[in-house]
Amino acid sequence: MTYTLTFGKYTNQTMKQVWDIDAEYVRWLAGKSYNVEAKRAAQLVIGASLMRDDLTRHMIHSLLKEIFAHTELSQLKRYRHRTVEVRRDYANISFCTHVLDIGPGLSDDFWTEDWELVQIATSYEGLYEVDEEDYGKEYPEKRPQSIRKPLSASSIVWYVLPDHRGQNTLSAQPLTLVDAVLLLEKHLALRGDYGK
Hints:
Blueprint: H1 15-21, H2 23-32, H3 36-70, E1 81-87, E2 90-96, E3 99-103, E4 106-109, E5 118-121, H4 124-128, H5 132-138, E6 156-161, E7 175-176, H6 177-191
Antiparallel strand pairs: 1-2, 2-5, 3-4, 5-6, 6-7
């Protein structure tokens, strides 16, 4: 059953509509609202969003597995650890060579001069926490792309960045996931033994 707010600045809007425009407000309702119905509706909307994120994460892992199985990636092969983070409209894919166990259920990337993390993301802004609204006006080609629709290897939503140091982007334009992986492979090949 769809819950419609009967109070506040979003009166007469559904909880889902509010989630799409003001997620922080919905999180506040889920944790602190005295209105039992609103609190429960907010919790349900957040739960559904997290489930979608989880499905998207699994989908991306499957796509990457397929791409790596059917593509010659001699440079990326050593970046054998892949992590995918999904947050609603955004997804970051990180590749690294080593992952160290730092406690029960926890792991962290292992950095040295020789090893670095390389990333693919749906938005340039998302990686560096740039204000979307202001940045999007100045650089419209770098506005975030949605990953809400079903994804495929040919979905044009991805950007590539070279490493965790946040240097220049490899691609200012959205790419397919296959193109993003190939561009990353080419970048690593051109760099050769950098850092060793």
